[in-house]
Specification:
Rossmann fold; elongated; GMP Synthetase, Chain A, domain 3; single chain
């Protein structure tokens, strides 16, 4: 069978005569072991085919042979490598491992807030429906906001569902370094085969591909090959695709063809959650006033927040001193722009809730059974529990109750009702956000 003539015959239905005439000018076409090698007269000819017709050729060849065919377009200098590259005993081994995932970067260890909720849900969906939705998934956001954590967590989740899944996690820099390595070894086809034989490809920090034309060409064709056979691609960057000015338009258009989501800076509530979770993993107790200090003064990224906690732990252990507000200011004075942070008090919570519901604070502290007052009292008790480090007994005394049973019942009731009452949930969230910013 004349493979190339059959392919051209099929392509003739959707290509013009001049294009077909140019395609007939290739030097040689050979099919072997799932590879279709196309030899071209010069690099310009190769770039023209790869940039405009490769997808059509791959689809047509795959249809012709009834299986996925990998198409390699070769110049005069490259075509002698084809025989070597398709010999399994002579394929160069990669100097990098397929996966180098951080075992701590899982979904279970991820603190989820308004800043990353959409990205988290998208990653979860992708892990559960690999290659079927949101392909590619492009995550962007400033440095240190958890993009890498999301990529690793997705890979871990995929592996938990299918331990035999072929996954590559890499950074744009490593991808470029590998490409150089394979080019120096004369094994570019092995590089392509390695990256096209995966179920999930994750590439971090793709902004570093800007201006790297050769690397972009390789990634473009790898992306297309994976996409055509339904394999998943996830990318991250510190800027959205539209701002990646040094990227080829065809590659940028591929990046936005799936789902693009942003990871934002965490709000105060999320930072407090991160502090609680990180301090627990470090085995240290962070007083509430210290947590507020860190959450209000560290505004750049999560990484700096975690670094500050690690520094407090180290200094506390070395100096044998407990972590207090004074100690935190002393230890972190060189890295943080300190400001006075007043600890959130129960009295302040009571006042803000009373103002919101337009009731007298004495009614909240009394025994009024008016519906509005009861709700205000219960919400104030609930917020006092989650926004301060006061015990149930201390909260009950602040609300002039005999014991903590009333407080506990109020907390449980608000917590339960928020699940089914959206208006209540929004009210509580609004008051919580307001109190945290005071």
């Amino acid at each position: 069978m004349d493979v190339w003539s059959s392919i051209l015959s099929s392509l003739s239905k959707r290509l013009d005569r001049s294009t077909l005439k140019l395609l007939k000018g290739v030097d040689k076409v050979e099919y072997k072991d799932g590879y279709l090698f196309i030899s071209t007269p010069d690099p310009a000819y190769k770039d023209w085919i790869e940039g405009n017709l490769l997808e059509d050729i791959v689809a047509t060849a795959s249809s012709l042979f009834g299986k996925n065919v990998e198409v390699q377009v070769l110049t005069e200098e490259e075509k002698d490598l084809a025989q070597i590259e398709t010999n399994p005993q002579k394929v160069e081994e990669t100097p990098y491992s397929l996966t180098n995932l951080n075992p701590k970067f899982t979904f279970d260890n991820l603190v989820i807030g308004n800043c990353n909720k959409i990205a988290y849900m998208a990653c979860r969906s992708v892990a559960e429906n690999l290659g079927q939705i949101y392909n590619p998934l492009f995550i962007y956001g400033s440095t240190g906001l958890g993009k890498t954590h999301l990529l690793h967590a997705t890979a871990h989740e995929v592996l938990s569902r299918n331990p035999k899944a072929n996954i590559i996690y890499t950074t744009a820099d490593t991808f470029m370094s590998e490409l150089v390595y394979y080019l120096q070894k004369g094994s570019i086809l092995s590089f392509r085969k390695r990256y096209r034989n995966v179920d999930l490809l994750l590439i971090d920090d793709v902004q570093f591909l800007q201006g790297k034309e050769r690397t972009q060409v390789e990634l473009y064709h790898i992306f297309n090959a994976l996409y055509l056979i339904g394999k998943q691609v996830i990318l991250s960057s510190d800027t959205p695709p539209v701002d990646l000015k040094g990227l080829q338009e065809r590659l940028r258009s591929r990046f936005v063809s799936g789902l693009v989501v942003e990871v934002k800076k965490p709000d105060l509530d999320t930072k407090l959650s991160i502090i609680r979770k990180k301090s627990k993993s470090l085995g240290i107790k962070i007083p509430h006033d210290v947590s507020l200090l860190l959450a209000k003064t560290i505004t750049s990224n999560v990484r700096e927040l975690e670094g500050s906690l690690s520094r407090l732990k180290a200094y506390s252990e070395m100096l044998g001193r407990p972590i207090t507000l004074e100690f935190a200011r002393e230890v972190l004075k060189d890295t943080l722009e300190m400001q006075e942070v007043e600890e959130l008090s129960i009295e302040k919570i009571q006042k803000e809730v009373a103002n919101y519901f337009a009731v007298n604070i004495n009614e909240i502290l009394g025994n009024s059974r008016k519906k509005k007052v009861v709700l205000a009292r219960q919400i104030a008790m609930y917020l006092s529990r989650i926004l301060t480090d006061k015990s149930l007994n201390e909260i009950s005394k602040a609300f002039k109750k005999k014991d903590h049973t009333t407080v506990l019942n109020a907390i449980e009731k608000i917590d339960k009702n928020m699940e089914k009452d959206r208006k209540l949930k929004l009210t509580v969230e609004f008051l919580k956000d307001k109190l945290l910013t005071l």
